[in-house]
Target: DUF4398 domain-containing protein
Amino acid sequence: MSNAIRNKLTITATILLMGCSNLSTAEYQPAMEKALEALLVAERALENASHDKGGHRAAALRHVRAAIEDTRRGIRYDNRH
Model:
């Protein structure tokens, strides 16, 4: 197994284990999960878009990434309170 694959598996396992620690208090949040999924799709689309947008693609990508992080923080917050 290559180091890159091993690293990805380690990161994935760590994230899953961290998530499992909150399962007893975690509440399913369908709206936030759906929003997160849409933001991740938007991020991929922007990453794949051509770069000739006068800096607006890059700005949109920064905003989407900030929204992804805020959405994740909101989910974590709700799971703790």
Notes: The chain has one domain: 3-80. Residues 29 and 60 are 25 Å apart (CA to CA). The mean pLDDT is 86. The longest helix spans residues 56-80.
